[in-house]
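Reading is simple: each integer encodes one residue's backbone shape. An example follows:

___
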Amino acid sequence: MIEVIGVRFRPNGKIYFFDPIDYELEVGTHVIVETARGVEYGKVVLGRREVDEQKLSSSVKPIIRIATEEDDQRFEDNKLKSKKAFDICIEKIKKHNLEMKLIYAEYTFDNNKVLFYFTADGRIDFRELVKDLAAVFKTRIELRQIGVRDETKIVGGIGSCGRELCCNKHLSEFVPVSIKMAKEQNLSLNPSKISGVCGRLMCCLKHEQDTYEYLNEKLPNVGDFVRTVDGNKGEVISVNVLRQKVKLLVTTEDDTKEIEEYKVEDIKFKPRKKKYKEKNSISDEELKELEELELKEGKSKFNDD
């Protein structure tokens, strides 16, 4: 076991572990640490705790120091410089007529590098752009192409639920999401209903997945034949997962058929395991599957913009 603290470098970003050595550090304290990108300014979000050293993907580096007032001021200055760098880069992109969308600009704490994050439909030849930017900023320039989910996480926004986007508000890492989750939760497969601002499947599908898995295991499948406590036999035509109720097409004694609703505890059936096994996050193949489904139904395609 090794004693560590958790540090973040941006709001809701990934948490990295560092050795606190002999410093007394509380949650909320700003520290200076060394990372693969160089010296960085971060915020302690997890206090001292012991973790299994074998579970860590890399060796834990010690923090350099607790941030001073000068460090705090430098960090604020870098944020202002980053905004100016963003505006300059926009002008240079227009000058070179590049089909790319600049999302964010960032100075490293030690000012050894300026990073520009952008989205584009394909590969972009930005060699001339890098030369122009290097001539302006007199430091190392790095351009990183990111995906639409990363763009949404950085920019933020309001979801269809009326709340701030999960990825921007509280998710430190993207969770795997798949079409199977929407099916398990009996949601419409209309892309406009289950896709987020980024055009990909909503991250919140994962939030309720465990609950739906648990509740679905207590219910029969649509099409199953079950027997009720009052002796009737019927075919399951629909289920209400959250209310734990089942609608049956029941055959009465006079051979007429009626639709009746029962609580799950009022019917008898052989439980079937329906444990959902998550495999991969949303893939191009799954997107094509949805697109083909929507084309058959005459609806709109997934929006990948």
In short: The chain is about 30% helix and 25% strand. The first helix runs from residue 69 to 95. The CA atoms of residues 3 and 50 lie 4 Å apart. Confidence is low (pLDDT under 50) at residues 274-282, 293-305.
